[in-house]
Design a protein that fits this description.
heterodimer; A: mainly beta; five-stranded mixed sheet; four-stranded antiparallel sheet; globular; B: mainly beta; seven-stranded mixed sheet
Chain lengths: 108, 113
């Protein structure tokens, strides 16, 4: 079973920041937090990962709480092309166990 | 990064038949994975396929139903055997290029009638 809990859906206005929360209260010390997204009719796409520290890349920022029991993915300026299902996954690499994810709708 | 192709992209098959799905990657990778995505659902891992060893299947999936081959570091096949309508899904392969990133193929959309 997936080790994460995410809201099933969220809306965001185009150009605004999208903040997607994830709870992973049973995460172990060696497990990373990964974020992937799946745009309709495509395979999932890697976004970002982190262990303890906050991370940023060209796509997004990942904020992990100090106790590592939750995290937030931030898309700083959401566009219509960011409409997708976003999956938060915890693991040590290798196989990915997907939960139900959050369906993000970016609206004009 | 890695570029992955899958064949066929989609197929419609009759119950009781088998379909072999091919996954080709443009670079050598050790770990490949096969997933199933049923209509409206999330992805479920079927098995891990490492070159030179038998595939490792997840709970609920068996080799007789989903035999996998991994003849080299750039190619793998998944066969869906003795199909029933419940096997109608999108089947995706993925490769791990580092501990942190997996790249997914576009998927094979299978409909069983």
């Amino acid at each position: 079973d997936a080790k994460t809990t995410q809201p099933p859906s969220m809306d965001c206005a185009e150009g605004r920041a999208a903040n997607l929360p994830c709870n992973h209260s049973t995460i172990s010390g060696n497990e990373y937090v990964y974020w992937y997204r799946q745009i309709h009719s495509q395979g999932p796409q890697y976004i970002i990962h982190g262990l303890k520290n906050n991370e940023t890349n060209e796509m997004a920022s990942l904020i992990i709480t100090e106790d590592r029991k939750s995290s937030t993915l931030i898309l700083p300026h959401a566009t219509l092309r960011d409409t997708a299902v976003y999956y938060c996954i915890v693991g040590e690499g290798g196989k990915l166990i997907f939960g139900q994810g959050t369906e993000l709708s970016v609206k004009p | 990064s890695a570029v992955i192709s899958q064949k066929p992209s989609r197929d419609i098959c009759q119950r009781g038949t088998s379909l072999t799905i091919q996954c080709q990657v443009d670079s050598q990778v050790t770990m490949m994975f096969w997933y199933r995505q049923q209509p409206g659902q999330s992805l479920t891992l079927i098995a891990t396929a490492n070159q030179g060893s038998e595939a490792t299947y997840e709970s609920g999936f068996v080799i007789d139903k989903f035999p996998i081959s991994r003849p080299n570091l750039t190619f793998s096949t998944l066969t869906v055997s003795n199909m029933s309508p419940e096997d109608s899904s999108i089947y995706l392969c993925s490769v791990e290029t580092s501990l942190y990133e997996q790249y997914f193929g576009p998927g094979t959309r299978l409909t069983v009638t």
